[in-house]
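Take a look at the protein record below and tell me what you see:
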Amino acid sequence: MPGVIRAVDLVKYLGGIQVVRGVSLDVERSRITVIMGPNGSGKTTLLRMLGLLLPPDGGLLEMDGVNLLSLDEEGRRGFLRRVAFVPQKPVVLTANVYRNIAIPLRLRGLDPRTADAEAWRWLKEVNLEKHAWKSAHSLSGGERQLLALARALALSPDVLLLDEPTSHLDPKNAAFIQRLVKEYVSERGIHCVVVSHNVREAKFLADEILVMVSGRIKARYGPDAPESELLKWI
């Protein structure tokens, strides 16, 4: 089906334990799918599989009708260039804050002038321009989260995967990032999957909320689901 990432019966074993058990879902363009559930339910493992960052041990994974699991190495690398993944504990380069955005842009083929302009644009977008020449390793956890998201959005991904994207942020910055992500996905027509424990964040972001428990999707909700209904799963 065009415009859809389709997963059918995805399975993953880690350390001999089945952590994802036959999960099926569709992720449409311009819509945000939020995955919720208790710790250890397989949410992050599923998120990584959807971006081919972790190979499934069984099932089907397609994007726009193309079987992603049958891609050759060149095709896989091409798909990964379309994916931006922001983990719960963001990784930063051993470089200053500015270069943490500019270097990945140069590696994607942008000329120096365009990469420079885009890096400054996104630093300003997340209010980190004042830290541009600091080592990225000197940033707080919340500032690293802002930097990682800015770097991901600057890459203009076709698939955006976010693992607890506001977990280290204060309420004001969390609300700002939630609005930014929602607008970005809508305006650019990309695929987006978010793992979150925050019920209000899930209801604000999501077009669909999936509840994952013990490696399976146990429930599906719209954004109008009562908070009390969602809280009972967490």
In short: Helices lie at 43-50, 73-80, 97-107, 112-125, 141-154, 171-188, 199-205, 227-231. Residues 166 and 174 are 5 Å apart (CA to CA). The beta strands are 4-14, 17-28, 32-36, 58-63, 66-67, 83-86, 159-163, 191-195, 208-213, 216-221.
